[in-house]
Amino acid sequence: MSIYYKAPVRDLCFVIEELIGLQDYVGMEGVEELDAELVSAILEEAGRLASEEWAPLNSSGDRQGCVLENGQVKLPDGFIEAYKSFTEAGWNGINAPVEHGGQGLPEVIASATQEIWHGANMALALAPMLSAGATELLAQHGDTELQQRYLDKLVSGEWTGTMDLSEPQAGSDLGQVAARALPDETGDSYRLFGQKIFITWGDHQAAENIIHLVLARTPDAPAGHRGISLFLVPKFLVNADGSLGERNAVFCDSLEHKVGIHASPTCTIRYGDNQGNGAVGYLVGELNRGLNHMFTMMNEARHKVGVQGIGIGERVYQGALAFARERVQGRRPGGKESVPILGHPDVRRMLMTIRAQTEAMRALALVSAAYQDKALHASDSEERAAAQRRVDLFTPVVKAVASDWAVDSASLGIQVHGGMGFVEELEAAQLWRDVRIAPIYEGTNGIQAQDFTLRKVLKDSGETLEAVLGEIEQVVAELRADSVVSDLGARLKEGVGTVRESTRYLLENQEDPFVSLSAATPYMMQAGCLFGAWQLGRAALVARAVIERGGDGDGFYTAKLHTARFYMRHILPRVHAYTPAVCGGSDELEAIEERHW
Amino acid sequence: MSIYYKAPVRDLCFVIEELIGLQDYVGMEGVEELDAELVSAILEEAGRLASEEWAPLNSSGDRQGCVLENGQVKLPDGFIEAYKSFTEAGWNGINAPVEHGGQGLPEVIASATQEIWHGANMALALAPMLSAGATELLAQHGDTELQQRYLDKLVSGEWTGTMDLSEPQAGSDLGQVAARALPDETGDSYRLFGQKIFITWGDHQAAENIIHLVLARTPDAPAGHRGISLFLVPKFLVNADGSLGERNAVFCDSLEHKVGIHASPTCTIRYGDNQGNGAVGYLVGELNRGLNHMFTMMNEARHKVGVQGIGIGERVYQGALAFARERVQGRRPGGKESVPILGHPDVRRMLMTIRAQTEAMRALALVSAAYQDKALHASDSEERAAAQRRVDLFTPVVKAVASDWAVDSASLGIQVHGGMGFVEELEAAQLWRDVRIAPIYEGTNGIQAQDFTLRKVLKDSGETLEAVLGEIEQVVAELRADSVVSDLGARLKEGVGTVRESTRYLLENQEDPFVSLSAATPYMMQAGCLFGAWQLGRAALVARAVIERGGDGDGFYTAKLHTARFYMRHILPRVHAYTPAVCGGSDELEAIEERHW
Questions:
Q1: In whole angstroms, what is the distance from residue A398 CA to residue B272 CA?
Q2: Which among A288, A323, A345 is the end of a domain?
Q3: Would the pLDDT of B30 be above 70?
């Protein structure tokens, strides 16, 4: 069975170079040399590894899955080698600090490569994704000694990291965490006891050591979310010289039997052995500030889940398109011969839906990544703060809308395949199963919607959003000034009006939290539809200019115009369908009594 | 793990008795005694069998799946017994003719019980569903001898039936069927050669014999769909006295490895043995009219797939609701204690979406079933013809919209479960995997949309649809006259306007088939959204009257009002999102050149 994955380097470069632009990166610390040629070379090289080594294992990894044997997790064949190819080429530390062995490249490049890894093999890409979360926590909050002992190997990927948050009673509500951390007599370390669930890549043999970042409570810590601390718990203790010491009392007790990402080991992790000895752990950051520390890296993890959805969306598109080109069935009106199903309007509609959703979210995610770079590196502090507000606003949308649409796209991918989509011979069904986790983890999409509505819009009195709407209106004006795309501008203008109306309603009713909570998901979906349209509207303007000056040799810009046009007609109008739900108050849901369910 | 399935007898009875009414059935041949009490007793009894015997096997059947051993299909444990309980109680022939041992009950009752079987165990319910298709074909087109020899046992369920249509090159386009049927020297029978794929319940040990209804070509038959005939091919030949004779040359060569309905054996079927002997088959109906014969029963099969989606939607709702009641996580605004997640507005929104989609489609499907009864049994021939036009209009909508929404509902069901939705411990993931086939088989939903748009609306100059829109406007008027629900009427009126506008556009542009084909899916979805709203609008009127007269003791009618209100605000407004796609012409999709993909 052919493996359909080719990294979308052309479109990634288009967004990075033509929608974002590299000018802001010139002279940015560590990235002095970043130019179009280098960006393209980096992505091509990532694409090569992805296509040649990662993508071919996607389907076999799904079939084989992970096995727990004698307390050790066995990965599917080839996964250890594919992971090593990735780390040895330096991809793991792509945006990590140079002083710890990273490449120091900007987030926008890192995001682009992450899409490629997820598109090629989502289950495997989760290993470096989780490591990056642990690395960032340690880099931001760990003391010098912890950093010196652990950071370089996490950046190189010789060791992997995990994020140990959930417990059976503590999922979305981490205030319920119950794992205990007792201080050692020396005061240098702690002994951890308890259990965590849903720990991604919680155990495996692809790395020499696994560094768990664990939320737990010390004795006498306050109840709830203000009494939780963050600990580093290595699978093997690390000696002062960096060599590995004895096995720590942290164990994988079982693997979840999941509907997708079978090749990613999802572990139940136990701290403490049968003799009553706890796992040795080291405090990261301040006591009782564990959840706060965690939240500082949450934005990035959420952004990455969105990027993951985009990667799957791209792979879905490629697989469905390849099938639609090969599968001959039915005739076009007036035709005498059976044609590839790509000739049928409804199949085209499905493929364009997948493509439009994916390209819109790709552009939004990379734009958001560029703001992450600006928030860290811009010379002006106000500029940094403004960029951070954009990141804060976009992140829940990227996470939730891109992941929701990825599930939708994957389902359309199945539909394009017809009966072949329902059998596990081609990859269509696997992509749908795999990506179904994305709307759930790193904060369910419902949590994202709350975050977006309450913290990112209402708390800010809608100011950051209004600034974005103002920018969208500039795009509207430019589109309307060009007769070829003026209709796109008209639709985009309607979208702005709808989101503004919803925002006004929510601001006016913000004293009642139930109104905001009832509206949150449809409101965030409205914003996501519009943000995607904004980016494709911008893309249409770039495309028009290139086409006008005769520069569309390979048809890329004409294709982009098709995508933008399709999006404005088929996807953007969803904003209007959400309005009654957003602006309808909370009575409807609150009035439902127990006996009415 | 508890098994969550309780047949929704209360709502089924509500639709049958209060939205449809039993008055039309009084005096109908064979159903003289049908009253509310009997309907309720029948459904309660089906519900008992479903909950006690079928539902508990749903999850074990999924895990165990079917196995092909020495050419024989082995079903999961308990399936043979559960099937026998069903047939022995007479459920298989619920609406089959009394003269062949059936119960002769109307389609509306049969549909209601079918929802129950699919809700309890979709994989098992496929066995009688396919048998019913074969039975109907034989009853309508078989000659007396074939009927006498095969019909009684198919009706009783002692034998099962299959529909053998697809071949590797002939899926949506059955004109490509290549299986051959050579006339025997006697002229009484044929010898079949060839292969069919995706044959549901194509082999198993739950019945003594399996009756395959097979599309094949005789020598010198015209090419394409006008040269296909229908044959009956039994697994075991049947002697003149009804006893079983020798094994026929029809074999299951392999089982598909599917993403869902693991307990339903999906077979590759081969006709002809290794010695070159064909399978013995008997012509059903006229030579070369096989596809026509098939289409006469297609409506009913499509209707049943919609009903299947509704059954799954109901089970999804029950499972998600039970989880939401038990799972304690997070606080409500202003609250100090963690609450069951049913208390969170966004969880309520998800549950209500599942419920509103399910109840709307349930009502539409049963109303359509009642028109099936009228089309067969009404005394007046014009009334019968008018009823048949309604059936023709509603069937593709019931099939496609109910199945699409069932997938959506099942995905929401996973989301309500959070991380537990992604693991295969509870049933949420299985329901989602199982129901994903429904938008594909019995004609993909894209084919349904074509059928609806071209054959059911445009070919009829929109007359049947306009008659329905007129009826919806009466509901609008009644809703608007009642201040408590007048807002529902206002929204319903907007929906009518939108669908009418789309219809006008399509009628005006019908000379260009690409316009209709490009619009078909969004147009059908618009109609489906509106038809569902119509039925829930009617339900709201009934509920208002009961509540006004103080008859809502158990809160059922208040709950129904909540559902109708939610639907009008959250689901119906989708109609507006489809308009630009429906009324946008075909240029956008047609202009995409090969290099633009």
A1: 56
A2: A288
A3: no
